[in-house]
Structure formats: structure tokens, C-alpha cells
Amino acid sequence: MPMRAYPALLAVAATVTAACLSIMAGWQRGGFLAERVLWIAVGVVLVVAAHLLPALCRPHGLRVRILGAALWVGCMAATCYGHAVFFLMAQKHAGELRAAALPVVTVTGRDLSVIARDRAEIVTRLARATARRCVEPCTSLRVERTAFAAKLDAIDAEKAEALRAEAAQDRAAAARAAALADPVTGALTAFGVPAPRAELVTGLAFAAVLEAVACFAWLLALRPAAVTEIAVTPAQQGSHAEVVTAVTPEGNEAAPVAPPVAVESAPVLRLPVVEQTDDVMRVMTAVTAGELRPTVTEIRKFLGCSQSRAAAVRKQLEPTT
Predict the structure, then answer these.
(1) Does residue 283 sit within a domain?
(2) What is the pTM of this model?
């Protein structure tokens, strides 16, 4: 697998993941089915735009890049907000599942307020019975006092049981509240950060990292391909090469020096290999059909190109002419 495919795979995976998050967030935020569908469509469009805008605006000019950057910031903000909604709702659902797994504590006895009212009444009646006096031994008064004392003990026992049940209920409520909170964000509250704010910050952080990975991967995957080029120098152009000759002492006769040295009178011209091969085939076909003479001037007029390019094409025709 070529190295160019790895960023593409990462980009596709990140975009699909972000699109799924937007789908879930849109489904949770909408009420009716049509509202949910529109929320999902908006979220997916914003995700794709946030991921592809940097790569699509890179080949264009400064104005297009500035406009694309402004749109990209807006898309990123909306996308991160939608992802944060999903993360918060997911944490809430996870907390509800953890809380549902805890045992439920129910109170079956009377309320403490009712018990306190009954106890006050018994204490009052017992005090009245204790305040009464009999000249002779009074059996009924002793029985009444004993009954009131027994009722008071029973009410005290009921009150103690109600206090234990209320304490167990308070512990169950605290455990339920701890289960509803996310464990990581719950640990952040030790540093003075409120739990709702900590959950929002962590959700936005996850969303921002995912979007950044997707944008960077698409920048790598959609980078411009490198064009294979060949260098055409004036040494390869017969009409622009100057042969340096050496003068011998005998007879002042000029003798050519091999190999010829070309004077660099023009800058290096680089032509794509595929395009140059296509031009050579066109010129070769025309020369074979007798429609064109293999000269630099005729080739330049035939192709509508520059003099140096026509010379390069003529150089490629030399082995065949």
C-alpha cells in the first residue's frame, strides 16, 4: 500500500466517526422525525465542510483562503458544539445505567413527623397520670401509668427505626448521585471545577481533537501530486548550442572539439514527461503523413508552443528522421 493511502484511510475513518457523532447528536436534539432528520443533515454537512475546507482552499488565492478560513472556523465551532451535546448525553445515559444497577431503599414505616406527634401526646398523658394522686391505693392509676410508659417505649423504638431507615435512604441517594456523575469529571471537582463545567470542557476537548485529526489527515491525503519532470537544457537543443572549436598551431586550421560544449544561454526548461511524449507522437504522425516538415519553425507553428519547446520536440524526432 502506498504511503499516500494511509492519510486517506485515517481521514475517512475520522470523518465517518465524526459524522456518526453528528447523527447521534441530531437524533437526540430533535423531537419529531422530520426535525431529527434535518438536524442530522445539518450536522453531517458541517462535519464534511469542516474536514475538507482547508484542503480544498489550499490551491486557491489569498481571498478564497481567507473566506474559507472564516467558514472553517464557523463549521468547527458548530461541529464541536454538536459533538459536545453527544458526549454530555452519553455521559448522562451511562450515569443512569450505573444508578439503575444500585439497590433501591424503600421506607415502609411511618414518617418521623407523625411519630413525633404521637410521642408528644403520650408524654403529655403520662405526665397527667403521674400528677394525679390517690388517697388510697389506686390500681387503675398504676395500670394507666404503666400503659403510657410502654407506649412511650414503643414510640421511641419506632423513632429509632425510622432514623436508621432515613440514614440508609440518604446513603442510597448519595451513592446514586455518585453513580450519575462521570468518574473522570468527578475527580476534576477536587480541583474546584464544577461537575457540569468539567463535563462540558472534556466533551469540547474530545470534539476538537477529533476534528483536528480529520482536517490534518485530509490535508495530507489531498495534497497536490508531484509531477514527474525531465530537464531540457540548451545542450539538447540543436539550434541553441554553440560548438567550441580549437585552433591548431599548424596552418591555423580549426578542428572541432569532441564532445561539443554547450553555452548556457537560456534557463533550464522543465516539461512534463506525459505531455512532451504526446507532442512528439503528434508531430511524428504529421511528419509521416507528409503534412509537416521536421523543422523547429514548422513544429512551433503546428503545436502553438515556444521556440525552446519546439526545439526539444525536434530533438526527440532526430532518431527517427
Answers:
(1) yes
(2) 0.55
Complete DSSP assignment for 130-159: HH---SS--HHHHHHHHHHHHHHHHHHHHH
14 plus 88 within the same structural domain: yes
Per-residue confidence (pLDDT) for residue 244, from 0 to 100: 43
* 196 and 176 both lie in a single domain: no
> 3-state SS string over 262-284?
CCCCCCCEEEEHHHHHHHHHHHH
- Cα distance between residue 43 and residue 28, in whole Å: 12
In a shared domain, residues 189 and 316: no
For residue 79, the SS3 value is helix
Q: Which domain holds residue 173?
A: 112-180
Q: Phi and psi at residue 250, in whole multiples of 5°?
A: -85, 110
pLDDT per residue over 34-90, tens digit each?
999 999 999 999 999 999 999 999 888 889 999 999 999 999 999 999 999 898 888
Rounded to whole angstroms, how far apart are CA atoms 101 and 240? 88
